Structure formats: structure tokens, C-alpha cells
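Write out this protein's structure.
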Amino acid sequence: MPYITVGEENSAPIDLYYEDHGAGAPVVLIHGWPLTSASWEKQSMALMDAGYRVISYDRRGFGRSSRPMWGYEYDTLARDLDMLISALDLREATLVGFSMGTGEVTRYLARYGSARVRKAALLSCLPPFLLKTEDNPTGVDQSVFDQIMMSISRDRLAFLTTFMHDFYNYDVLHGSRVSDEVVQFGWNAAADSSPKAVADCVPAWLTDFRSDVPQIDVPTLLIHGDSDRVLPYESTAVPLSNMLQDCHLVTVEGGPHGNIWTHADQVNTELLDFLKS
């Protein structure tokens, strides 16, 4: 199995697990919280069938990557992404982030530039700034994140059950767009992740990307469900689309947070059209 080393903790290397399949222009997939690169199943196959080289990896603390006790803020996570891109010597790549992965894409482009990047796609986006403040009145109240942290501390596994239901809007889409098995698949990945990583990623969601976004100088696709219960559409996709220089916003009607599964056909069509344009 392929790994790259991105750091060290005490006597052990910090390794990222990645997969590199197909041929053609490279597309790098950065997964959401609290999942792994396996969550890109429907996109990976569609991209390879369309003739792209697809690289996906597990964020530190998740999946088959190392589980250090530190590094779950966006400066480190973007550095991990940069080390992967540099190690594989990728050129003219498209970065595709989902949920928390959109933060890596945003911070990477702001810190490391677009010399190796052709385009970016942000699906169920986290930027520009999720927290409600005086100068960000459409954000989410701090109490929501305090409750999430408390729930994770009290019973992480029970919290993940509730979260995965909200992730897919299970009460509305069960039986039509999402099955019990898909929800269980997500729960299994989340439950198997580092408890430290699961908890430490939550404060990273409150990163203020408003100074990063104007530095994105590549064409950008936004895909976001208007029924997203995790990262509300009006708090994320709307302000982000207004801040980007070259942006195409696709609103998935009735789409939940996990639209890469529930609305995969629409997401894949928009993504492939964007890559070809």
C-alpha cells in the first residue's frame, strides 16, 4: 500500500495513505469529516471512466493514515496536501474537496499558490467562515459547536449515529437516495478513526478563511445542497460564491450534506463538465 511520510511523532513517522489510479490529467480528492478516502467511491469510478488520473488520500487520523496526537488544524493539513502533491510531482491538477476537505483546498491555494493547480472544486463547502460573529451574522452560533464537542466527549459513537443521519438527511431520503448500509458504512469509517482526530477537527471548522479566499486564482466549482444540515447553504456556499473571482455555483435542490452519494449523478455530471470546460 502506498504511503508518504509527512512528519514524525516521537519515534514514529506520520504517514498518509493514498491511492493513485488511472491515467490522464490528475484529480486530487480530499475527503470530509469524519470519513475516509473511501467515501469518494462514486466519484472515483466516474472520473477514471472519463479518462482522469485519480489520487485520493486519508487525512491524518483517519482511515489507514497515521494517528498522531497533533496536526488537526488547517496549516498542517494544507501542508500535508502540499507534500502529497509535491511527492507525486503533480502538474495541472484539479483539487476536489468535500466538506472539511474544502478547507484544505482553500488554505493550500492561499499558502502554496496555484503553480501546480489548474482548477478547484468545493463540494458542500466549509469556507469562508462558519462561525456567527458580529461581522458574520449568517454564521452558525458557537453553542452548536460546544454541543458537538460535549457530545463527542460524552459518547463519541452515539454522536456519530446522529451525525450520520443528519449527514444524509436520513429521515427524508432513506429508501430513495440513501440506504441503511450506506449510513452504516459511514459510521464504521468514523468510528474506526482516531478519537483524538475526530474531536480536534471540530475547532478547525471555525477557521476564518476570509483572507484566504481572495487568493484563489483558478476557476472554481461550488456544489452545495440547499438542505444541508451540517454546513448550511446560506452560511457557506452563498457568501463563498460572492467572494471568489471565477466561480460557478451549482445548487442541489433538496441535497443534504452528503450529496456526493445521494445525488452522485448530478454531482458527477457537473464535476466532469467543469473538468472538460
